[in-house]
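Hi W.,

Here's what went into the run:
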Amino acid sequence: GNSVTQMEGPVTLSEEAFLTINCTYTATGYPSLFWYVQYPGEGLQLLLKATKADDKGSNKGFEATYRKETTSFHLEKGSVQVSDSAVYFCALYTGGFKTIFGAGTRLFVKA
Amino acid sequence: DGGITQSPKYLFRKEGQNVTLSCEQNLNHDAMYWYRQDPGQGLRLIYYSQIVNDFQKGDIAEGYSVSREKKESFPLTVTSAQKNPTAFYLCASSIDGGAPRGYTFGSGTRLTVV
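Here's what came out:
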């Protein structure tokens, strides 16, 4: 079946470090891929998305490229800030009424 | 500004009690959803609704009920039949069913059994 696997957290970085959060997926067909961010005590916010192979989604300095050959959608940011501390969810939509979420990766950024 | 409003933010339930979580949106979205979030886990779909007066069970509907009498509103009732209701509940909406363009989420309700 369809599934999403994210790297386990927490990920702890110093301010201005480079961030990568790995996400791989299993899906039939041609899914759309998403990254959502959840700040403490809040709901999820859509961060970026990509709908076809080789698309790059980007927002607020974050980016991710839809790699069909490696079934991956890794999230990257060149220089993280303390305010980026949150939980990040990779998600997959293949049609119908279901979006599948990964387990989330918690990011801590130290000043 | 358009968005989704969930209330209350915190809710405490006694054993054997039914409680209702409110979800209201002013985005004019047709589809609405309820998700449950447990620590260290992804989101699990409880119920969804495509249009008024229609809703479908998700993956973990047992012990929950919903209604969709108005486009703007999609309340969730956690019944006494739900044996482990302590969790963070998220309401979401989307322009089109299944959210191929992504969801808009509310800020959540944290439910605790006391």
